[in-house]
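User: Here's a chain of 302 residues. Predict its fold as C-alpha cells.
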Amino acid sequence: MNILFIGRGGNGKSFSINSIEKQQSADNASSLTLSEFQEYANDTSVTEKEFQELINIKVVKCSGIGDRGEDLNDSITDVICKLEDLLTESGGFNAIVIVLKYGVRFTKQEQDAVKVFDSVFGPGMIPKWGIILFTYGDLFYQDAKEDNGPSFKDWCREQTGDVQKLFEKANFRIILFDNRTKDPDQQKKQFYTLLETVRNLKAESRYTLQEFQRVSQSRETFVEEEDTNKQIRDKEENNKEEKIHEGFWLCQVIWKHKETVGIISAFAIIVVLTRKGLLRNISNKFGFKNWLAYIPFFSKSK
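Assistant: Prediction complete.
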C-alpha cells in the first residue's frame, strides 16, 4: 500500500512522515499488534494480512504541489513531471493526504492550493482518495484545554466557509497529528488513526498514472495559466525595480543639491516622492524603516 503526502511548504509534511516511519521502525514495530488495532478501530474483521499491509504502508511526498508564485521553488511543469515519476514507480496511491497546519486561518493561499490539487489531480481525487491531515496538534490540545473546547471531531464539524466545503468534499476524513509529542501511546494512536482512515476509504482502485492522464486537459490549462501569471509577476517585479532605481537616483540628486534648492524644498520634494510610493519601494528594497533614515545616507553622496 502507498500513500502520497501533498500540501504547501511549511505545513509539516516531512515531520508527519517522520512520525509514521518512527512507528514502522524496528524499535516500535514489535509493539503494533492486530488485536490492539482491532480494539482501537472497533472492528474485528481486520485480518492479520490486512494489518501487515497497513503497518508497512509506504509513504512518499511530492513537494511543490500547492505552492504558487514566489513560494514555488520548481516550475509547475517540473513538479508535474516529478509526480508522474512517483506514480510510475509506485504503481499508484491508495490515499492522498493533504497536509494543513492547525492554528493558521484558511487563507487565500490555502484556497488556491486546493484549486491546484483539483487542477493537477482532477476534481474527483479529494472525494475518492483524499484525507486531510492537520499538523501542530499540540496547539489544538492547548487551545482545547485552555478554553475547555470541543473535541477535534466536533471542531471540524463547527468550521464554516471554504474550509468546511473542503471537509465535506473529503467526507470528513480528517485526522490530527501532534508531531512534537513524546508520548509513545499518543504516537501509536495517531498512526492507528491514519491506518484506520486509509482502510475506511474503501476506494475500488488506486489513484494511478492512468487516472492522472485522464485529467491532462485541465492540467494543461492550469499550466498555461501559471506560465501567464508568472510572466505578469516578472513584469511587475521589473517595473518595481525600475521605480526603485529611479526614486533612489532622484533622492540622491535632490539631497546632493539641497544647498541650491534649499533644505525645505528638498524635504518637500522628498515628501512628494514618498506620497507617490517611490521611497516606500526603496525602503522595501533596502530595509530602511522610513524615509527619514535616508537623510544621513544621501548626505554621504555629496
